[in-house]
Amino acid sequence: QVQLVESGGGLVQAGGSLRLSCAASGSIFSINVMGWYRQAPGKQRDLVAQVTSSSSTYYLDSVKGRFTISRDNAKNTVYLQMNSLKPEDTAVYYCRVGPDRGGNYYWGQGTQVTVSS
Does residue 69 contact residue 57 with C-beta atoms inside 8 Å? Predict the structure, then answer.
C-alpha cells in the first residue's frame, strides 16, 4: 500500500501563485508516474500535469507556461507550482502516483484550490 499526503491548497486572488505538494510513503520501491489531476464541480477529473521517472512531462494545454511539475525522488514527493492563477483553475486537485509492483495507482485525498477574480 502507498499513502499520499497532499498540502498547499487554498484561496488566492487571480494572478497569484500556489505550490501543491504530495508526499508518498509506504510500500514504495520506485514510482514511475507522478501526476496532478483536478476536478471542478459538475465536471470530470482531468489530468493537469504529469512527470515520469525519466523526467518526461505532460501539461494540459490550458496550464502550459503557468504551471510547473517537479519531483524529488529522495523524498518521494511531487510538486505543482501554479503561477498566474485564473478563476477557471478553481478545483479540487488530486495527486496520483504509480504503478507499484502490483500495477496499482494511488490517489491523494484532494486539496481545494480556489482562485477569486
Answer: yes
